[in-house]
Amino acid sequence: MADAQEAREIVRDIFDVPPIGIDIDGTITEDPQFFNLLISIWPAPVYIITFRHDQERAMRDLRQYGIDSDNFELVLVNGHEKKAAEITKRGIKIMFDDTDEVICPIPGNVLVFKVRNDGNFDFPSKRWFYDKNTGIDFDEYVREITRRRESPGAE
Ligand SMILES: [Mg+2]
After folding, report:
1. Is it the case that residue 15 has pLDDT exceeding 90?
2. How far is the CA of 3 from the centre of ligand 1 (A)?
3. Ligand 1 centroid, distance to 116 Cα (angstroms)
4. Among 32, 45, 68, 114, which residue has the least CB neighbours within 10 Å?
């Protein structure tokens, strides 16, 4: 019987499984048990990418949250926008993150799972937080498109 590593390699070879990226704060912290399972079984490289400065502290925190798998590489970046560069460099095709400033610059060929939490979502009103750099008000967008169609060349 194959051990866990052999089983992951067999699945990866059959299904052409891509590398994945996972944020820590606001992502793994929202459901460490789910992410520990995902990390444990994912048959391709798993990169935990975090905007933190202290590698040892990040590892200690991950263990404290309950991440007991070693099936990942920890990548520290010094800015939200640096994550997109790491995602491209490492061939990550699936990313889990909670911060729009991270998500927006990620290339369009990457599947993004946005994790909802108190920092990005207003639970009482059931609406996302966004600002002019990370979001477009849909009603305003439709009005603008309609105005452009009705008055082409008016800009
Ligand atoms: Mg985060």
Report:
1. no
2. 33
3. 10
4. 68
For residue 114, the cross-strand partners are 97
Q: Tell me how far the alpha carbon of residue 94 lies from the centroid of ligand 1, in angstroms.
A: 15
Q: Taking a C-beta distance cutoff of 8 angstroms, is the pair 111, 17 a contact?
A: no
What is the CA(11)–ligand 1 centre distance, in A?
Answer: 29
- Walk me through the domains of the chain, giving residue ranges and CATH numbers: 2-119 (3.40.50.1980)
Q: Using DSSP, how many helices (H) and how many strands (E) does the chain show?
A: 6, 7
CA of 17 to the centre of ligand 1 (A): 24
* Residue found under tokens 């866990």: 4
Q: What percent of the chain lies above the pLDDT cut of 70? A: 97
CA 100 from centre of chain: 10
Ligand 1 centre to CA of 100 (Å) is: 9
Enter the tokens of residue 18: 């891509």
